[in-house]
Amino acid sequence: MIARGAMLGPNQPVILHMLDIEPAAEALKGVKMELMDAALPLLRGIVASTDVAEACKGVNIAVMLGGFPRKEGMERKDVMSKNVSIYKAQASALEKHAAADCKVLVVANPANTNALILKEFAPSIPDKNITCLTRLDHNRALAQIAERTKVHVSEVKNVIIWGNHSSTQYPDVNHATVQDKPVREAVSDDEWLNNEFISTVQQRGAAIIKARKLSSALSAASSACDHVRDWVLGTPKGSWVSMGVYSDGSYGIQPGLIYSFPVTCEKGGWSIVQGLEIDAFSRDKMDKTAQELIEEKELAKSCLN
User: What is the pTM of this model?
Assistant: First the structure.
């Protein structure tokens, strides 16, 4: 997708730097061969490496897919401590070797907290250049509303994912529209919107694992491209997207958390959409997911210590 222009537009040549762990070195060679064999016009070079310093050298955009998945019988703290060490090492490599303007997107879970660890150990990368992926949840919410109202997904706009990329996230439709009509009016079923819709979006990743026996692949890759494309090239006028970004205290969210907000992007930067009205139902959900992020942050800190 990146090499076909889905991430940076159809006229931007790219050099792909691919990093994997030592046991996957042979498979990585195979991926490099396939990329070469696809004869992609935008692909101007490939670096395939198991050396983190070599892979990070001079990169302008880093998409962090590597993380340790939670396995049966593992406590949250076990997963967190493995991810803390992975992200500490990768942050140090980005800090030393990436381009000064490097933009970082963390995909691996726990995405928000992994991004926070990365920020901690790559202090010279600006706060605004470290984000995590909640665009997948955003796209899932758009798709659910489109299916429910029987319209094309491009006619649904301005849903919001608040908070953590976890089952506490809050998919909010109070400011969203379907064919320029408020979603609540278009759906006309508050019971569904306040319950089933929210839990479907929250649990969609688990539902995919149950069906495929593997986690989301195509949809995650597609939304990572969407996230970076809008960040670099800008969001369409009059609409916003959801991104996990460094909180500045907007909407009463503790500053310093990586929290998903509605944002607009322009000239390679993002801004949190301000002044949206928050009702009591939304406030409660937004605070619950913020609380989970505060707990994760404390857990990560204890793993570091």
Answer: 0.96
Query: How does pLDDT run across 69-114, given as a tens digit for each residue?
Result: 777 777 777 888 889 999 999 999 999 999 999 999 999 989 999 9
Confirm if 109 and 165 have CB atoms less than 8 A apart. Answer: yes
Q: Is 109 exposed, middle or buried (0-12, 13-18, 19+ CB in 10 A)?
A: buried
Cα 19 to Cα 34, 50, 53, 119, 202, distances in angstroms: 16, 5, 10, 20, 30
Helix axis angle, 76-97 to 111-121, nearest 10°: 40
Catalytic annotation on 152? Answer: no
Q: Assign 3-class secondary structure to the chain.
A: CHHHCCCCCCCCCEEEEEECCHHHHHHHHHHHHHHHHCCCCCEEEEEEECCHHHHHCCCCEEEECCCCCCCCCCCHHHHHHHHHHHHHHHHHHHHHHCCCCCEEEECCCCHHHHHHHHHHHCCCCCHHHEEECCHHHHHHHHHHHHHHHCCCHHHEECCEEEECCCCCCEEECCCCEECCEEHHHHHCCHHHHHCHHHHHHHCHHHHHHHHHCCCCCHHHHHHHHHHHHHHHHCCCCCCCEEEEEECCCHHHCCCCCEEEEEEEEECCEEEECCCCCCCHHHHHHHHHHHHHHHHHHHHHHHHHC
Residues 6+ apart with CB under 8 A from 209: 215
Which residue of the set 17, 97, 138, 165 is catalytic? Answer: 165
For 275-295, the pLDDT digits (tens) are 999 999 999 999 999 999 999
